[in-house]
Amino acid sequence: MYVVMVCICLAVTLASVSYPPFSLDCGSEKALRISVNSAPKKGGNIMAYPEKLNILTYPDPFLTKTAAPVENIDEDLEKTARRMIDMMYKAPGVGLASMQVGIEKSFFVYEQLPGQDRQSPGVLINPRILETEGAFLSEREGCLSVPDFRADVKRYASVVVEGVDITGKPVRLERDDFLAVVLQHEIDHLHGVLFVDRLSTLKRSMFRRKYNKAGKTR
Ligand SMILES: [Zn+2]
C-alpha cells in the first residue's frame, strides 16, 4: 500500500500536451567521480550528517537551497542513508531527499520497486537527469515536506538519470513509469524545488491561501 510521498496515479499519458521544458539540469560529470570509503577528513564538516534527522516542511527556507555534490561515500553517509530509508518507509513514502532532512548533499533514498510487496530500497548519489521525453500529468502528487496537500503536476513521461549507488557504482536508470516521477520529484528537491513550485501561478496562490489558513506559513 503506498499512500505516498509522491502519491501518483500515472493514469494518463498526455503525450500530446506540450509545455515549456523544465530546467532539470543537474551537476556535472565531475560530480560522478567520487571516492568511496575514504577516511574522514581531519577538520571536515562534522555537521554534514546530523545526529537527529527530522523531515523539514514548507516553508522552511532550507528546502529552497541547492545541494552540494557528495565527494566521498563514507560510513556516515551510509548510516544516514539507512536512517533515511527507515524514515521513508515509516512515513510512508517512496522517496526522501537529503535536503528534506537538512543535509545539503546531493543524494536521496527511494523505493526501487514502488507498488510491489517486497521492499527494495536504493540510494542515488549525485543524480542528474540526462534525457527527458514526453509529458504526462502526475495526479495528486504529494510530498512529505508539504503535508496535507496534493495537486496534479506536469512531469516528463520518461527520463534517463545517472548517479552512483551507495557502493560508488555508477547507476543509469531509464524509466517511463511511476519511478520516473519519483526520480524527477527527488532530483527537484536537490535543486530547492518543491512540487508546488511546478504548479501554475493560480494553483500556487490557491496552495498558499490554503496553507495560510491552516497557519502553516509564516
Ligand atoms: Zn518531496
Describe, in plain words, how this protein is organized in 3D.
- The chain is α+β, with helices and mostly antiparallel strands and 218 residues long.
- The protein has a single domain (16-213), classed as Peptide deformylase (Peptide Deformylase).
- Helices cover 21% and strands 26% of the residues.
- It has helices at residues 29-32, 75-90, 178-189, 201-213; strands spanning 35-36, 72-73, 95-97, 107-111, 121-133, 136-143, 146-155, 158-164, 170-175.
- The strands form 3 sheets. The protein has a 5-stranded antiparallel β-sheet with strand order 3-4-5-8-9.
- It is globular, with a radius of gyration of 17 Å.
- The chain starts with 28 loop residues before the first helix and ends in a 5-residue tail after the last helix.
- 37% of the residues are buried.
- The model is unreliable at 1-32 and 38-46 (pLDDT under 50).
- It binds zinc ion.
- The site of zinc ion has 6 residues, from helix 3.
Topology:
Layout (H helix, E strand, L loop, with lengths): L28 H4 L2 E2 L35 E2 L1 H16 L4 E3 L9 E5 L9 E13 L2 E8 L2 E10 L2 E7 L5 E6 L2 H12 L11 H13 L5
Parallel strand pairs: 1-2
Antiparallel strand pairs: 3-4, 4-5, 5-8, 6-7, 8-9
Bound molecules: zinc ion.
The site of zinc ion (ZN) has 6 residues, from helix 3.
